[in-house]
């Protein structure tokens, strides 16, 4: 178990290190950051002062080490637009993003587990086919189109729901659904396949043979055993998908979260914000992945014993 | 070792082949694919209007069948009087071209790395698989945002980003298949019979790789279409005035309450495209994998 945990820790640290390095290389590949980001209207002295401040005349190695040192001590610089530390800019946007994420994951779990179980139990009837069509459509329709069609229908045409902001529960409806489309498609497929695997096992036959009701067989013995797989999929796949989805959905609905901030920073080329935002989201995703791996190992002795 | 003369296996094969016929939805998807490809290839011939040509007298006109319809502009015009249908078809052309270029780059990069990882064991394989794990762990949309913001949204950078988007899937598939095939008895037999490494690679390894790669290429195509239109929608992909389906939806957003057709035509084309490609991809996958057909 300890060896397995160490492996996970090493993997997480290496992945984070790679992300930090990618953000550094990406910013330096694009030429002199001063020219790219501050552009015209800069006097010669101002330019020299900035070069001295960011040590841009030193070797790349020196810059890289200084950058790593900054990352480790939590120094990510100031936002070009806000003139505030980027950590503060990102931190105040974490909670709105977290709210939307929690709402979406909750909706996804409820809908996907229901649909996935139905699709597995009724896989030979029209119910199973209908569920798979829904799951398929979720994959094929990009979230921005789902969002746009909802806005057209429910805001502009029917005038039921607000488009911009996150003030009331009514503001949550469309962004949550738009975020969840892809997640539901993914999780429904996984739930269905996990349920099919479990329902084919010998202990299910035993449970039926000893006279248990079908509902109890499916929910307790079936879903109970499939839930390990389902939970691990939520941690490993849904986190990454949600991070990508929040970028699109938050910018459509002007949701004051990290995703919207990242798109604005990308368009305004506010590169310290962009850099720290990408690192922060990547840390969150890697942390969720690693915690899922640990939980999975705790739940399943085959994993922690096999690799240790 | 299973003998091919085994009657049960033969029967199963015949049954399986019977299941390979396309159903009605898959047939519709094939027709759609041909139509969309034709529309993209012949867009300059099919469209009577210049996709960039403005006409300030015919701004924000609705599609055929509505009041104030401007003659010839079947899907209406946008805020600068540009023909929405012409722009959509040119956008479709660009989107498909970018998606193909991206999928080919992914195939070449991922396929090569997967091949190397499958053939050379040891630290080379470990290193490549660590890269694959990293690519899976990092949400790619974020990397794309970073790269496009820093390097600018030229078409070259965009193709590069779209190509890098899915390489790890190819690498995993190729590595897995190469390792599986390398353990097959018929490879030993071929070697014993005196076949050289190039001959075995060409005659025995490559044919086994074709069908999983075709499947992955098709599925990647639809993912890349979604990524490209999403990036263009956000204003980070294809830049105006050049039309792409995603950027048309993004720019048309401001006119949605009064002129929804500007958004709906390209949005409909994107959904048609992703549905068609994914149905074909699923169909190819079911054909290629006997195990999936059981379900």
Automatic annotation (TrEMBL), chain A:
<dbReference type="InterPro" id="IPR000515">
    <property type="entry name" value="MetI-like"/>
</dbReference>
<feature type="transmembrane region" description="Helical">
    <location>
        <begin position="273"/>
        <end position="299"/>
    </location>
</feature>
<feature type="transmembrane region" description="Helical">
    <location>
        <begin position="12"/>
        <end position="31"/>
    </location>
</feature>
<feature type="transmembrane region" description="Helical">
    <location>
        <begin position="169"/>
        <end position="187"/>
    </location>
</feature>
<keyword id="KW-0812">Transmembrane</keyword>
<feature type="transmembrane region" description="Helical">
    <location>
        <begin position="100"/>
        <end position="121"/>
    </location>
</feature>
<dbReference type="InterPro" id="IPR035906">
    <property type="entry name" value="MetI-like_sf"/>
</dbReference>
<dbReference type="Pfam" id="PF19300">
    <property type="entry name" value="BPD_transp_1_N"/>
</dbReference>
<comment type="similarity">
    <text>Belongs to the binding-protein-dependent transport system permease family.</text>
</comment>
<keyword id="KW-1133">Transmembrane helix</keyword>
<dbReference type="GO" id="GO:0055085">
    <property type="term" value="P:transmembrane transport"/>
</dbReference>
<keyword id="KW-1003">Cell membrane</keyword>
<feature type="transmembrane region" description="Helical">
    <location>
        <begin position="133"/>
        <end position="157"/>
    </location>
</feature>
<protein>
    <submittedName>
        <fullName>Peptide/nickel transport system permease protein</fullName>
    </submittedName>
</protein>
<dbReference type="GO" id="GO:0005886">
    <property type="term" value="C:plasma membrane"/>
</dbReference>
<dbReference type="InterPro" id="IPR045621">
    <property type="entry name" value="BPD_transp_1_N"/>
</dbReference>
<keyword id="KW-0813">Transport</keyword>
<dbReference type="Pfam" id="PF00528">
    <property type="entry name" value="BPD_transp_1"/>
</dbReference>
<feature type="transmembrane region" description="Helical">
    <location>
        <begin position="226"/>
        <end position="253"/>
    </location>
</feature>
<feature type="domain" description="ABC transmembrane type-1">
    <location>
        <begin position="94"/>
        <end position="292"/>
    </location>
</feature>
<keyword id="KW-0472">Membrane</keyword>
Automatic annotation (TrEMBL), chain B:
<feature type="transmembrane region" description="Helical">
    <location>
        <begin position="94"/>
        <end position="119"/>
    </location>
</feature>
<dbReference type="InterPro" id="IPR035906">
    <property type="entry name" value="MetI-like_sf"/>
</dbReference>
<keyword id="KW-1003">Cell membrane</keyword>
<comment type="similarity">
    <text>Belongs to the binding-protein-dependent transport system permease family.</text>
</comment>
<feature type="transmembrane region" description="Helical">
    <location>
        <begin position="259"/>
        <end position="281"/>
    </location>
</feature>
<dbReference type="GO" id="GO:0005886">
    <property type="term" value="C:plasma membrane"/>
</dbReference>
<dbReference type="InterPro" id="IPR050366">
    <property type="entry name" value="BP-dependent_transpt_permease"/>
</dbReference>
<dbReference type="Pfam" id="PF00528">
    <property type="entry name" value="BPD_transp_1"/>
</dbReference>
<dbReference type="InterPro" id="IPR000515">
    <property type="entry name" value="MetI-like"/>
</dbReference>
<keyword id="KW-1133">Transmembrane helix</keyword>
<feature type="transmembrane region" description="Helical">
    <location>
        <begin position="21"/>
        <end position="46"/>
    </location>
</feature>
<protein>
    <submittedName>
        <fullName>Peptide/nickel transport system permease protein</fullName>
    </submittedName>
</protein>
<keyword id="KW-0813">Transport</keyword>
<dbReference type="GO" id="GO:0055085">
    <property type="term" value="P:transmembrane transport"/>
</dbReference>
<keyword id="KW-0472">Membrane</keyword>
<keyword id="KW-0812">Transmembrane</keyword>
<feature type="domain" description="ABC transmembrane type-1">
    <location>
        <begin position="92"/>
        <end position="281"/>
    </location>
</feature>
<feature type="transmembrane region" description="Helical">
    <location>
        <begin position="140"/>
        <end position="167"/>
    </location>
</feature>
